[in-house]
Amino acid sequence: KSITEMSADVRKQRAAIADVERDVPLSMNLGLFTVNTSQLRKFLVERRQQLSDAILTLIANRIKASGEELTQSFRDIDRSLNRGVPDIEAVAELEEYMHALPGELDQLQQGLQEMLAEQLVLEDFEFVTSEEDFKTLWQTMAWPQRVAKTISLAAERCVEKREAYAAQQATEQEAYAKTLDRLDAVVGKFGKHVDL
């Protein structure tokens, strides 16, 4: 069910509790007898409250599962951004990955918005979640900022590595050019020798 439908179900259960409290008296006079209906009333109210709490617990469990899934996705992205770049191909691969990242981050952001909407439903009904679930929710909400910082650091690292690899390549080209010059000089000396 969607969060809207589940929220409507909770409202329906809460309205049923109010109806029971309004419509079922604590006792009834039936001529010579007085019937105590307080236990029946209490049972009906508790049953409706249990149903309401069960739906809210289901929403809380969905939030927790979504949070764990989103956290894992963000961790995977963070891990990919922090991987080493031992050569220029790895730098190019990381830059390519960063350019493709906004689409994936938009999907994750959408998941965070759904998760927050579900949390707001719980707060509307004043449903108390565990401290662990509360921490998980807000740690998950902090991931986009952490990933943005990691993207920035990875971009800087790519620029630094590109410059380092370019300098290394220039040094290697100079060394290669000197080697070619020496070989050219050696080959040029071969002309002085005459076959006997």
Please trace the helix and strand order, writing H or E for each element: HEEHHH
Number of strands: 2
Termini Cα gap: 98 Å
Question: What is the general shape?
Answer: rod-shaped
Strand content: under 5%
CA-based gyration radius:
35 Å
Protein traits:
83% helix; single chain; 2 strands; two-stranded antiparallel sheet; 196 residues; mainly alpha
Verbal overview:
83% of the residues lie in helices and 4% in strands. It is mostly helical and 196 residues long. It has a two-stranded antiparallel ribbon. A hairpin with a 2-residue loop joins strand 1 and strand 2 (33-36). Helix 2 packs antiparallel against helix 3 (88-124) and helix 2 (38-81) runs parallel beside helix 4. The radius of gyration is 35 Å and the shape is rod-shaped. The termini are far apart. The model has no long low-confidence stretch (mean pLDDT 88).
In brief:
The protein is mainly alpha-helical and 196 residues long. The protein has four helices and two strands, in the order H-E-E-H-H-H. The radius of gyration is 35 Å and the shape is rod-shaped.
How does the SSE layout of this entry go?
Layout: H1 3-23, E1 27-30, E2 33-36, H2 38-81, H3 88-124, H4 131-190
Antiparallel strand pairs: 1-2
Helix pairs in contact: 1-2, 2-3, 2-4, 3-4
